[in-house]
Amino acid sequence: MLRHSDIWHAIDRLAARYNMSPSGLARRAGLDPTTFNKSKRITREGKQRWPNTESLAKILDATGASMAEFVGEI
After folding, report:
1. Most buried of 5, 40, 54, 60, CB within 10 angstroms?
2. SS3 content of the chain, % helix, strand, coil (to 5)
3. How far is the C-alpha of 23 from the C-alpha of 21, rounded, in Å?
4. pTM across the whole model
5. Hey, CA dihedral for 11, 13, 19, 21, is it positive or negative?
6. Burial state string for 49-69 with b = 16 or more CB within 10 A and e = fewer than 16
7. Three-state DSSP class for residue 64
8. d(CA 43, CA 70)
9. φ/ψ of residue 10, rounded to 5
10. Cα atoms found within 13 Å of the Cα of residue 4, Cβ hemisphere only
């Protein structure tokens, strides 16, 4: 089962692998630089915020990483 923390950890590790911060990764993928900020992973109401598949596709495209590579970070 995929856990919220595992997905975000994989995004953080992918950013680090390509020598970027999560904000830098978002910017390079054409997303708002705050998209992957830790402060935005949980809503004010305490609900977990999951990245959508479009955002994941954009970061894979921006880095050239494969889905297998991303899943390997989980």
Report:
1. 60
2. 55, 5, 40
3. 5
4. 0.90
5. positive
6. eebeeebbebbbebbebeeee
7. coil
8. 24
9. -65, -40
10. 10
Q: Are 65 and 71 in contact (CB under 8 A)?
A: no
Q: Token digits for 58?
A: 């954009």
Cα separation, 63 vs 47, in Å, equals 29
Provide the pLDDT for residue 1.
Answer: 83
CB distance 27 to 59 below 8 Å = no
> Quick one: residue 25, left, alpha or beta (phi over 0 = left, psi -120 to 50 = alpha)?
alpha
Residue bearing tokens 């994941």: 56
Is 42 strand, coil or helix?
A: strand
Q: Give the integer Cα–Cα distance in Å for 15 and 22.
A: 6
